[in-house]
Design goal:
The protein is an alpha/beta fold. It has one domain (3-254): Metal-dependent hydrolases (TIM Barrel). 39% of the residues lie in helices and 17% in strands. The chain contains 8 helices and 8 strands, in the order βαβαβαβαβαβαββαα. It has helices at residues 19-28, 41-53, 72-85, 108-125, 137-146, 163-171, 225-236, 240-254; strands spanning 3-8, 31-37, 57-61, 91-100, 129-134, 154-156, 175-178, 201-203. Strands 1-2-3-4-5-6-7-8 form an 8-stranded parallel sheet. The chain is globular and about 50 Å long. The mean pLDDT is 97.
């Protein structure tokens, strides 16, 4: 049984002491593909470095809404740097990009600008996008409806269980990815996982964050993806092997691997 972890952060400082060992271990335990996701210039470079050093790892590069800077000019400079990095064959997406109103709400228009500009870049480069949306559901929906989403599609990463967001994502051709929070005991609306068609379903860890039950609160890594797969299998009346196979195939399609 093989898994494709569509969203990981082995470029995070949480792995500085044992990155090589963890990467070796996840492969041995059946995670035979993963995409390391960038979220600013430094971490995008690190994601690409890790991908170049490991045959089974790929990278996404982009500017997270929390790292966009203080002006449109600063955003455009960063996007030009992302563009220069994008021509490496290990780059498979632009991301993670999007909106995050959890920590900061005084730069909403700037976040929207960075989001749409990076969608435009993805269109230019013919790459899919990886979308982050936190406490910004309605504005995310508005942008998805009003912007040309890449013909090469994209992913609603760690998608919240909101029917309108999921349906809008599906209507715009996106894949829907679920992570550890769907396993939490207090999680509601897990039945919404059933509205995602089989050919649009993905799984991820977002490691080192969002460890699923039974490891909630601990540092996450791709070996925990089996718990998310098992939860989806239970909800959809499938076996974990079927979910692993379905999501592996879908991940290869959206990332064109």
């Amino acid at each position: 049984m093989e898994f494709f972890d569509t969203h990981s952060h082995y470029n995070d400082e949480a792995y500085d002491e044992d990155r090589k060992e963890i990467i070796e271990q996840i492969y041995k335990q059946g995670i035979t593909k993963t995409v390391v996701i960038g979220y600013n210039i430094e971490k995008s470079k690190k994601a690409l470095e890790i991908a170049n050093d490991n045959e089974f790892i790929y990278s996404a590069i982009g500017i997270h809404p929390s790292d966009i800077g203080k002006s449109k000019e600063e955003i455009l400079v960063q996007i030009e740097q992302i563009k220069k990095m994008s021509f490496n064959e290990k780059v498979v997406a632009i991301g993670e990009i999007g909106l995050d109103y959890h920590w900061e709400k005084d730069n909403i228009e700037l976040q929207k600008f960075a989001f749409t500009q990076q969608i435009n870049l993805a269109n230019e480069l013919k790459l899919p996008i990886v979308i982050h949306s936190r406490d910004a559901i309605m504005d995310t929906i508005e942008i998805l409806k009003g912007t040309e989403i890449p013909k090469y599609s994209g992913i609603l990463h760690c998608c919240v269980l909101n029917k309108d967001l999921i349906q809008t994502g599906l209507n715009t051709g996106l894949y829907i990815s679920f992570a550890g929070p769907i396993t939490f005991k207090n999680t509601k609306n897990t039945e919404l996982i059933n509205i995602v068609p089989e050919d649009r379903l993905l799984i991820e860890t977002d490691c080192p964050y969002l460890s699923p039950e039974p490891n909630r609160g601990k540092r996450n890594d791709s070996r925990n993806i089996k718990y998310t797969a098992q939860k989806i299998a239970e909800i959809r009346g499938k076996t974990i092997e079927e979910i692993a196979q379905i999501t592996y195939k879908n991940a290869g399609k959206v990332y064109h691997i």
